[in-house]
Amino acid sequence: MKGYRILVLLVTLMVTLVAVPAQADRFSQAISVFNKSEAVQPFFQNAYGYAVFPLIGKGGFVIGGAYGTGQVYRDGRVTGTTSLIKATIGFQLGGQAFSEIIFFQDKRAYNEFISGNFEFDAAASFVVVTAGVQARAGTEGVSASATAGPKTGTQAIIRYQKGLAVFIHAKGGLMYEVAIGGQKFSFQAL
User: Within 10 Å of residue 166's Cβ, how many Cβ atoms?
Assistant: First the structure.
């Protein structure tokens, strides 16, 4: 029963983080933060389009979840809105808030995302552009890595995987996680 109460508290915190009204320019602020990273800048220059989520709330206690809303861009214009839902299972405890940007390498990747039923599986790879730790689990095995963010001067070379490149900007919180799950996206054209 105590675990259930903690899970309810974490989910409530996550929903509160996402539901807090933000300024009208929260999307441009999030884009600006990502554009300051030298690792991300080339993607703004050559991507076919991108989706940006200014705030995603995440929480978990054995079973976890995350939720956020965003906008999809093509040629610098908003083409629609999107939402992200993530479910995970495994050892996890805590809550986090972060921003996420997904770059589409070409028209095929963009069209696949806006089809309205796009998912990342557990093997998806995310790059953290600020201090944090990340992990990856998939059919090819499990790995974990840490980064001190762009201010350290050295970052891994980032490439598109299956037409997508994903970057995360940690905003706050603390989450211990060795879990597996996936992200599901919806899209609504303007």
Answer: 18
Cα–Cα dist 61/182, whole Å: 16
First to last CA, the chain: 44
Where helices occur in the chain by DSSP H, the ranges are 2-19, 26-35, 41-46, 107-114
Nearest CA among 172, 182, 179 for reference residue 134 = 179
Beta bridge partners, 49, equal 74, 104
Structure-block tokens of residue 119: 């998912």
3-state secondary structure of 14: helix
Residue 123 pLDDT level (bands cut at 50, 70, 90): low
State what percent of residues in the chain have pLDDT above 70: 69
pTM: 0.75
* pLDDT at 148 > cutoff 80: no
pLDDT of 140 strictly over 60: no
32-48 exposure pattern, b = at least 16 Cβ within 10 A, e = fewer: ebbeebebbeebeeebb
Number of domains in the chain: 1
Domain that holds residue 146: 2-189
